[in-house]
Every structure is written in C-alpha cells, then in structure tokens.
Sequence to fold (476 residues):
Amino acid sequence: MTIDPRRIRMLKEAPADTKGRYVLYLLQQANRAYNNPALELAIEEANQRGLPVVACFGLLDGANGFPEANARHYAFLLQGLSDAARGLAKREIGFVMRKCSPARIAIDLAEEAALLVLDRGYLGIQTEWYADICKKVHTSIVQVEGDVAVPVEVASPRHEFGARTLRPKIANELEDFLSPLRSRKVKHPAQELGLTSEIDISDPDAVLASMTLDRSVGPVKRFKGGETEARRRLKAFLSGPFEHYGDNRGKPEAGAASHMSPYLHFGQISPVEIVLAARAANASREDKAAFVEEVVVRRELAMNHVFYTARYDSYEDAVPEWARQTLAERAGDARPHLYTDDQLARGETHDDGWNSAMKEMRETGYMHNHLRMYWGKKILEWSRTPEDGFDRTLRLNNRFFLDGRDPNSFTNVAWIYGLHDRPWVKRPIFGTVRYQNENSLRKINLNAYQQDVERLCALEDGSSQPVQEEEEPRLL
Fold:
C-alpha cells in the first residue's frame, strides 16, 4: 500500500520553513484521480502539513499546442480530464485548468504552494517542462514515477539491446513494484481556497470547440477517454478475450486485444493496476505471462529507448548503425511501387490488406500490433530512401493513432528499421533488416479482419447503429 521510495525523486529542496496554502500536484502524465502514486504522495504530504491538495493542468493550444496533436488526440485527452476532474472533486481535491503550458501553470501556482509534486513522462518536451519548472520554482519539488511498473533507471542503467536483455532485469525487480496503491483520505478539503479554473472541463466537447488546433483528423467514436472507461474496457477484456490471449493475441480478427494502449498513453490507467487485475483474472499462467510481457516488458523497453536516446525521433540516432549501413547499401535498389504521403494516408495502394489496416487506423485511431509491423515495413519498401520512409512512417503514426507520439510509437517505428532486432537474410531494399511480405497476412483471417474494419468504420461515419452503452463492446 505504500509508495516504493525508488519511485520518488527529490528534484529541488527548499528551506524547511517554506510556507504555503496548499500542496500542488501538476497532473500531466498521469491523468487520473485514482491509482496515481504522485497524487497519493501529494495527499500524504498535504495531510502532514495540515493543507489541502490542488491539482493543475496546463492545456496547450494554438501555435504552442502539443507537437503533432490534433482534434482526435485532444478530444480523447479532454474526455479523460473531465473524468479525472469528477474524481478529484469527489476526493475534495482542487483542480485548476488554464490554457498555457504545463510548466507555466505549475510555476504560477507554485508561488503559494508548500510543495510541488510532479508525475513523470519520458518524451523530450516533458523533460524540458520539468527542467523549466525546476529552474523557476522556489519551493521543494518531488517527482513520482507512476507511468511504468519498474522505474526506468531501476530496470537498467543503459540503453538495452532488446527485450531479451531487458526482460530478466525487469523480472528481478517487478514483484517489488506491484503493490496495490491505497487511496488516501484527504483531511483538508480544497473548496475554501478560492482558486478558480478558467476552463470548464465538465463539457469537454465545448472545450475542444474553443481550441485552435488541427481539425483535419477528427475525434473517433470507437474510443472514449477517461479512467472510468479504461477500467470498464479492462474488465470486459479480462472476463472474456483474455482467457485465450496467448493463442490469439497475434490475430487481429480474433478479438484478443485489450485496447489499453490509448489509456496508458494518456495516463488514464496505471500499468500496475492492469497487471494486478490480470493476475487476479481467470486465465492460464501462459495467458497472464504473455499479457505481462506486452504491458510491462515491451512497453518499458520503449521507455528505456526514449530515455537513453536523446533524439529518439531521428533516423540517425534511433536506428542502429548496422541497420543504417545495410539500408544505405541497398538505397539504390529498384522499388516496384512508390506512393506519395497522400496516397498512403488514403489507403490507395495495390495491397488490399495494407489498405484495410490503413483505413482502420485513419478512421478509428487504432491498428492491431501484428498489422502495425506489416504496415510499417511496407512504407519502408514503398519510399524512395530509408530516411524518407522513417519520416513518413512517423508522420502517419503520430497523425492518426490515438496513442501516437508515445514512447511505444517512436520505438515501434525505429524497430521497422532495425532497432531491437538483428540482421536477417539479405534482400533488395531492406538489406539485412527484417523483411515482411504479403505472406505475413496469410497468418490471419484477412477476410474476417476486413469485414470488421468495414463495420467499425461504418460506426464512425454513422451509417450503422452504434453499440448500446450498457453492452460490452466487441473488442478487436
């Protein structure tokens, strides 16, 4: 029930007699009111000081918006924040939202804070915010890890070669970090502080409409943001498809995916909560092990990559030297098919299976991991140079996926070009980088998958009746 001290980092220490009206929590990576170690630590510290807790969120908008975020991403984010705000109010925690950067709101509100608590993300823009906050805030600052099961530096002090090298290191530490997190009772309600929020997040659609942002990619109906919805989906998954997860996880048509990735990306559910729930579910040891491999080992390998790679979005830095060398050697090979960015985005290629996967991604914000690999390998094959392919893959990934712009996404795109992999048989265009062709699609029931895509896309455009709210969704 306690927070492992290895999750906690003191970033700045102010004099012991520092006064304040509240303990401030910058709700940035962990956008949830429960199972949130940073929030629980803020409550503990506030109770000890006889103070209330105030959570805050800075909403980037207009020209200073979050890089590559569009209406699809913001709709999901705002739905989650609306849900979190309700949970915070229920716990008598104050919540302030403003249109500014996360660093700006934290710096401003910390002027009257006895302590500032941060959660933790691993993207470059987030580390820049943390550095700015530490430079300009004069009170004590503590940061609490709640986005991974095993903190990155605890798992490994270096960039790992791949899952096989990180897996045993994670295994050595995992049990110590899988303790349930008790919800602390707030002793001093925040209502009397008089702090006001300039954004009414109770109506996320209205907030979205008021923003200046890219609306070329719109919100989706397939996924609703928020920790309440994340837990509902997790419960549905664990009581149904999870029972055969090990056998079916590689088949898009089998309905074995958990769909937790968007919720993890936006911090709307804890990976520890997911693992504990999976362990308690009615499934075989093999199914549970396969799921933990995805939620913990594979996901935290991505965190390791972006943490130890300064320019994880750069072909030169993210792709290993052996892969760049072999791809450069085959850069002059003839490419039977070349497509523009627009043709790829519209799914106008000669490959019907690829087009269906692109349609699912474009219209619903999701694509099964098995197809993501094939999808990316084909973009490499259909691009003039590997550098061009890398950039195009990343642009499409970040534009359409709900969980784009995530450490997993940056890592998965680099994997297509050789990261966390080894040399294979030499081929045209790919050199010794792993190759995939249409035979990969023969491992799945492509016809069943394409029918599901058409059904899901019909729900998005309103030409089919949506599933009733009380029914469990069919999970792809």
In short: Residues 148-180+226-308 form a domain with the Serine Threonine Protein Phosphatase 5, Tetratricopeptide repeat fold (CATH 1.25.40.80). The mean pLDDT is 94. The radius of gyration is 23 Å. The longest strand covers residues 53-58.
